[in-house]
Write the structure tokens for this entry.
Amino acid sequence: MSSENVKKPVLYIVVPCYNEEACIEETVKRLQKKMKALREAEKISAKSRIVLVDDGSKDKTWELIESMPKQVIGLKLAHNSGHQNALLAGLMYVRKKCDISISMDADLQDDIDAVDGFIEQYNDGCEIVYGVRSERKTDTWFKRNTALGFYKMMNFLGVEVVYNCADYRLMSSKALNAMSEYGEVNLFLRGIVPKLGFKTGIVKYVRAERFAGESKYPLKKMLNFAWDGVTSFSIKPIRAVLGFGVVVFFVSLLIMLYSLIVKIIGNAVSGWTFTICSIWLLGGIQMISIGLIGEYIGKTYMETKRRPRYHIEKILCKD
């Protein structure tokens, strides 16, 4: 990297979009204002760009992207591939074009002014900088506590994640190249990025209310996302099933011994209720265990097929 690029790194801001016609224009307007200020302060290169990734939107998101100024690059995916894959598509597109990338959502909840702190941390030697929420006052009680439970569960299962950090982060080209070597189909970037092992920093910010439109992560999607994170990075649930099976086995031996003693001393009574309850209990445990193991087998099946995670249908670059 030349001395000029060290002083003024090429920055690409990657924004995945899905049905964001209500706020995409305002998002680009604010990002352009921030990019202009950074250029004037000589913190980034004039070659820096904004990349909008349309994840198969069904509204006018792509039409609006096509009308954007030349400093904005548009990627249109051939179909809806999911937020994580759309984000990955953008990051993989820019990794050879930039010195640093910043990923953020299109709803303007991520504080754009935190970008200055990201760049300062990068100049201090950090290859990855996480945007971490300093508070969760804008969340409902339910969302705040389920998020807390999610992070605690991930840490308990041995999955390294950054608490209160979503996908608002800076990654250098070195970190992006390292991430490109991870080829799993079941994508959970919040678990992959901490595994890269480079020097990291944290910038805290206050998350705002969504500018317009509706959240693209309802409860069902959030639960699926959390489950994907658990099953993609930890086998502790399967080990828990094994451990529970061992406990049940020894308990069954004790019950068998007790039954034999009762039979021998002649105090045997009808045990219909106990038998029925035991059958239903063990049957339920077995079904849950089989389903859990099947989830891991299913993920293995998806990985072995090696299907592409996304297809880019169009690239809009007006430079």
In short: The chain has eleven helices and eight strands. The beta strands are 11-17, 49-54, 72-77, 100-103, 128-133, 169-172, 200-205, 312-316. The domain at 3-234+310-316 is CATH 3.90.550.10 (Spore Coat Polysaccharide Biosynthesis Protein SpsA; Chain A). The chain has two domains: 3-234+310-316, 236-305.
